[in-house]
Amino acid sequence: MPSSRPGGPLPFLDHLAADSARFREVLAAAPSGRRVPTCPDWDADDLLWHLGEVQWFWGEIAERGLTDPAELDALNASRTQRPDDRVGLLDFFDRASERLHRTLDGLAPETPLWMWADDKTAGYIRRRQAHEALVHRLDAELTVGDRTPIDCRLAADGVDEVLRIMRGYEAEPGLTHAATTAPVTVVTVDAMHSWTVTPVRVTGTWDGRAVDVQRFLVSDGPDGAAVAEICGSAADLDCWLWNRPAEGQITRDGDPAALAAVDAVLTDSID
Fold it and tell me: Is the CATH number 1.20.120.450 carried by domain 12-148?
C-alpha cells in the first residue's frame, strides 16, 4: 500500500509477536495428529514445525546479516533436524520465534538483507513474517475450531502484498506481458482502500529459464476501465487471496470472463 498508511506505519513486529504467540498457544493444546483443514497434507505438528522452520530461517538471515544468495547453502546445511515429539517442537518454535523477533527488532528497517523479493531489507522481512505468522495463526485456529478476529489494517496490507508482490508483475528484461482481460477492481469495505488489477500472461526467459505465468498489473484506486469488482472486508479478502475461508461475504460483480481471469492468476504457481 502507499507509504502514507492511515494511522502511520504498521507495527509489524507487534503483529509478528502476537500472532506467533497465539499460534503457539493454539497448537500447544491441539492433538498432534489433528489434520489442518487449510493444509490437508499436514497435521498439527507439521504446521508447528513449518512455521518454526520459517522463523528459524529468517532469524538466521537476520542474525548473520546475510546479503549474498551464495551464502544460503551454508545456512541450509546448519538446519536443525525435526524433533520427534511435541515438547521438542515447541522448544524449537520458541527459540526460533524469540530470536527472529529480537534480531529484527535490533535492526533498522533499511538494513540490507537477502530476500527473494525486490525489497531486500529488514523492513520487508518484518512485513513478510508478520503476514506469514497471521496466515498460519489462522490455520492453527481453524484446526481446533477457535477462530479469532484479524486486524483490519494488517489484513489490508496483506491484500496489498499478495496483489503486488506475490501475484504482481513489473516489467523485467527478457519478459513480455499481454493482458488476458480488462481490469478488475478489488475493494475493501472497511479499510478505505481499493486496487485495480489487470490479469496478464507473462512469457519469456528470466535468469536462464523459460517463464510462462499469469500475474497482475496493479494500481491503487478504482479505474474507469474496470469491467468487474470484487468487494469484501480486508480480512476476508486477505483470507480469499491466501485460499483460506472467509468469515463474511465477498461479492463479485461484473464480467464473468474478467472474474475468471482473476481466479486463474490466483491458482497459478508462486515462484
Answer: yes
